[in-house]
Amino acid sequence: MGFPFTDNAPNLAAVVIVLFIASAIVFPLRIYIRLSKKVWGVDDWMIVAAVLPFIAFSSACLSGSFHGIGVRQERLTDDQAKQGLKVFFLFEILWCITVIPTKLAISFQLARIAGPKQFYVYILWAMSAIQTIVSLVALFYIIFRCKPVSYAWNTSTPGGHCEPASTLTDIYYAATAINIVFDYGCSILPIPLLWSLQMNANAKITVAILLSLGVLASLSACVRLKYTVALTNATDYLYSISNVVIWGYAEIGVGFFVACAATLRPLVRRFVDLRASSDKRSRQDHLNALPEDVQLASRLGGHENGWYGELKQPKVSTSEERLVPQGQEIVISKSVQQSSAGGGTSR
């Protein structure tokens, strides 16, 4: 009997697919920019270190949507429910593993921007150290809180037991709170940091906006915390944890995406420059294809958009001298004729 794919399971699958595709696009672009500009740094090694855990994390979350997570209890058999709990256990472990290098990549990236401004660097080191330590504590507690480990998803194991659920809940709260503070700090820090650097205003605004997108990760963590608290009173556990998985994945996925997208400004600037150059060439080619008189009128009149108005013929002036006999003398007679698009005169 196959697992039902209904209730909240499709929403979980959709979130994972969208964020993973977005991250899969910006990550190779980041690598290309860093290598082509020869500015490879520690933050790049961190995001590379996060790739394999992020792929495994994405696979576990997507697999959970097809193995009971997000499905109402009455639709699942006991064996299917155990399988769903096993996938959720894997989700918890991979979340703790993936969040560390992802957040460190953002932190090292900001530290690179801070440069000699040691005050900002010290703040980043402190936040990074606390976030890493709390995530490692949560990781080892989740793995070893039950003996044997399989008792975490199969409570029918003989002789098995787990530490009190309240302790795990407290660790959840602490880890989530630390990550929220970290995300907000990394979102706010670029604003005063960039403002003091020698960059043009447009560059400052662009980079600040990209880095401040990390606030979306903190919002995801806030929503996840809400659903984590609600788990204490949940009666339909596998259905309820689907929202924890969705927002937990969103937190990591958005963080990974922002860490990569914030480095793509040179590529965006190159695209804009090429677009402007292409538009300029297109206008010039269009102009060169016109008759010479229209080209001249366009350049003189500034009509570069293809609207030339009513073209007037240039003024023509002619002069003619004739020998006219008058009596015994020969007199030189001169006539001048002028014409324009508006009319002509002669005398």
UniProtKB/TrEMBL annotation:
Membrane-spanning residues: 12-33, 45-67, 87-107, 119-144, 171-195, 207-227, 247-268
Record domain Rhodopsin: where: 29-270
Cellular localization per UniProt: Membrane
Broad class of the protein's primary localization: membrane
The UniProt record lists the keyword Lipid biosynthesis: no
GO cellular component entries: membrane
PANTHER family the UniProt entry points to: INTEGRAL MEMBRANE PROTEIN, PTH11-LIKE INTEGRAL MEMBRANE PROTEIN (AFU_ORTHOLOGUE AFUA_5G11245)
Protein name: Rhodopsin domain-containing protein
